[in-house]
Amino acid sequence: MLSSAKRSHGGDFEDHLVDGVVSVIKVIPFCFLVIMYWAIYSQMSNTFFAQSERMDVSMGGGVNVPAAALNVFNTVAIIIMIPIVDRLIYPCFNKMGKPLTYLKRIGIGFIFATISMIVAGIVEISRKEYLDRANPLVQSLGGQNFSASTMSVFVQIPQFALVGASEIFTSITTLEFAYNQAPVAMQGLLTGLFLAASGVGNWVSTAILAIVESATEGDPWWADEINDCKMENLMFLLAGLMALDFIIFCIVAHYYTYQDPAKFEKTAEVPVSEKSDTDGSPSNDAPPSYYNTFDNQHTHDAVKPSDGTTPF
């Protein structure tokens, strides 16, 4: 549609400028699709936190774990998994000739996020089974008393760790994807849009909780006192929404064609070290910005397979 704006088609703009704008337009749908992911991510400070407050936080010897401290397992998962993903998983897929492209990595993160909510829902069901409503465990957190289950709060570790795993594949890769698939002049804009999506995701999370609370008032799924509601249904709903978002993401990603960053610049302005190889792919001598910050050695394969096909 914008081809008519190119000089080669009688338009007023340089071809590489038009190609850059078109590339940004093609990436924008993914900015919207990651919003639901960030809505799931924000559950660590919403539903997960409410769940933590009503679980046994004692470690023995009179020592209690702050309910908010469970977030540390999200960070620990990231610290442990980054070198594993960077030095083992990505290189293995590259050696098999099936590199994990940017969009595949983002999709894997979506899957981890979905699983985290399913696990959280299962934990919530189990938590209530260990809740003695007649004689509950009463614990004081932040000056407030909570009727808690005897189930240890550390049972939540898997759901926090799964969110951490999703960050490695989705959060980091979306920024790499935005940076790689945009011309230099628009890299900041596209990166900013992906960062803005995280803020919108938090708002969407708040909106979903408010809608669910209002819609299920007679038989609540979300309330100030989660012991009196079916929060597991809310968690499964969020998992379903994330799964639906993943399906839509797969459809959009299937039709996406990766762009060669070199084509966004005028040929005359591209240094010898940045020129494309004879196969049209970016040279391995190109600046690091052309490549995946995780694995500079293999990003050429991650962006464009050697057989020239368009990857997911």
UniProtKB/TrEMBL annotation:
Signal peptide: none annotated. It is a multi-pass membrane protein. It is found in: Membrane. Coiled coil: none annotated. Pfam families: PTR2. It comes from the Eukaryota. GO terms for molecular function: transmembrane transporter activity. GO terms for biological process: peptide transport. The chain crosses the membrane at residues 20-40, 61-85, 105-123, 189-212, 234-256. Its main location: membrane. Keywords: Membrane, Peptide transport, Protein transport, Transmembrane, Transmembrane helix, Transport. InterPro entries: MFS_trans_sf, POT_fam. Residues 269-312 are annotated as: Disordered. GO terms for cellular component: membrane. Residues 279-296 have a biased composition (Polar residues). PANTHER family: OLIGOPEPTIDE TRANSPORTER-RELATED. Belongs to the major facilitator superfamily. Proton-dependent oligopeptide transporter (POT/PTR) (TC 2.A.17) family. This is Solute carrier family 15 member 4. It comes from Biomphalaria pfeifferi (Bloodfluke planorb).
